[in-house]
Amino acid sequence: MVVLLVLVGAACWAAQASAYIYWTGPQSSGVYSIARANLDGTGINQKFINGDGANSPDGIAVDGQYIYWANSGTNSIARANLNGTGVNENFITGADDPRGVALGREGEYIYWTNYGDGTIGRAVYNGSDVDQRFITGAVEPDAVAVNLNYIYWTNQVYGSLSGGSIARANLDGTGADETFITAVDNPTGLALGPNAAYIYWADAATTPLGGWGIGRADYNGTDANSSFVSDFDIDPPNGVVVDYYNMYWTSEFGQIYRASNDGSAVNGNFMTGLVIPLYLALGPVAAATASSSSVSFGTQLADTPPASGSGHVLTIKNTSPGVLGNTGPAALQMTQAQVTSGNTGDFKISGDTCVGRSVAVGATCTIDLSFAPTAPGPRTAVLKLSSNDTYGPLSIPLSGTGSIAALASPLITGVKHRKPKFAFTLNAATGGAPLNTIMVTAPSGSGLRFLKAENDLVGDIKVRGPHRRRVRFTASVQSRGQVLTIALKAPTSNASITIASPELVASRKLAKDVRAGGIAAVTLTINVTNTEHFSQALSFFALLSFPAF
What does DSSP say about strands 288-290 and 314-318: parallel, antiparallel, or unpaired? Predict the structure, then answer.
């Protein structure tokens, strides 16, 4: 049995929603809005939240319950439900030209930049304990982002083609470094990549000639590159957001671009025909990632119950950290687990504590899988886990091999005069074609060989049937050098076959070496064939010893 261990992160389950991309911007003269589209760029709604409540909105952030944005027109932080209702444009008041907004860990703090007086503000998630001067000394701070360790913001220096910076401070507001990254010119949008890897920013003036681009640096501020994605045809970027596969940024000329996280596959037509999109956010993101890309069950006897302990533990993690700056967490809710594609009857889900359950951050649920091949040879299927994963169902390939026989209790022990006692037992598959040939091979150079023989071996082969009734029959035995071939005259299945042969002999040198050292290792290969000509190789490792003469 395989126990599939699923690790998921989650926020409060109430009001969970599918993932969207959100942006702010004007729609007409004097009318601003919060816009929204599906993560694939379809379903564009440029007036998702329109008019009242969206008063010159700039920065935007989304978690599992609410949408937040900075209203520079009313010097406030606004909030609405994920479906756009319940707009409260005065959720937090007293800001000074707020621009960016970011979310900390669930239930802790919300942060924003006060462009007017050069400060970073902070409040509890419910809007209480407001501190408009949580961090001071910033220079025209614009975008802001937060992770588990630090607060980051852009010092824009508006109207300048250079001189901006990206700043950083500890979560408690201490240790502010206004020049954390200086290899920037006019930074606007800011985003933190997943897995504590990179910082991204939109730079509206990477060269005096206007070669705008998207910048990137390591989380520690090194290897800063303001032209990570840069092209003279790219319009001035403003907001930027990053998920586990792609980056997105806005153009003031009515476009939202998308590219892979490595900077490739830039798509300037991802969304077009917009008015003036400014800042970006992604709606609650859930992303399940498996620690292994597949599950292999190994080899098991066909048409028999699953072998005890034949398993693998696969961990699946919801890679929504909840603090990518302006993207909130989403609980992972699994809606279906099923085995699809291929040999579906060979792989079973025998237990499930995941489907229909909301799992808290860091908690686990399990899916128990078993493998019982119905035929010999390679067997494959796919475990499909359907959930609210933003990027679609998670598919995990399953594989195993059905065998026509399994080796049990192999044994080689030494006897006098260099003739080891050689015995092994094969358990035949309970269904399918019966076994008819068994070939044993000793490795060349091992010092072991079979005596030349062509005869019928009667008493040394024992067959025990399904009702534990012993069956005796003959077999044609041919051996020469390294190979012993046993052709069963009465092909059999549903049985255990025990073979004991005196035909194995050790060379004088091997016997001498064993007596001197006391023990030697040997590996024999057993090739089994059934009446349908299906062949399978088995091998066993045993220890060889000889009593002193």
Answer: antiparallel
